[in-house]
Amino acid sequence: MRKRIRIQELRPSKQQFRGRGIAHLKVTTYDDDGNEVVQCVEIPISTERVRKVYQEFESKAPQPPVQERLVQPSEPIGRELSLIKPTVVMIPNLADAKYRKHREEFEEERAWAIAAAAIDVPLFILDDGVPEGERPAKTLGEKITALKQLGLQGPHILDIVETITRLCSWDEEERLRFFSRS
Questions:
Q1: Rounded to whole angstroms, what are the CA distances from 156 to 25, 36, 40, 45, 177?
Q2: Which of 10, 53, 96, 132 gives 20 to 30 Å between its CA and that of 86?
């Protein structure tokens, strides 16, 4: 269904930009006869709590090491910076192995946090201290632990994050379909 909404006023109480959808996660198992069984697990998700996670992680992002370098105006970077005389420039080293490792770990941690925040159904964590053996996950950390206890893998997390992105942004084909007159 296509629906255009002309906004007359913006009110936080109306949650006009809250996206809701379903993440479709592939789970492959085998039955008792050894036949492959492919399942699609549908998990309701919401963008409501995701912005807060992005904000929290923004300040944690690893920064690459920076090195001083004398750049000549004739070098490609010198032309790009419109230099007219040799100038000392601070250049980030994005190829630094330690930085790349920290960046990869950061991206993975952020993806798990986004997925945990996006889940729009009650999420439970194992807890030997309660009679039922599990209790509702309350904090973001507990929700991440619960997702891992459930057996979610990296590809599942990426599917959830991609679904969140699709709830809030257009790809070119979708934009053309939506705004076509047919």
A1: 6, 19, 11, 13, 28
A2: 96
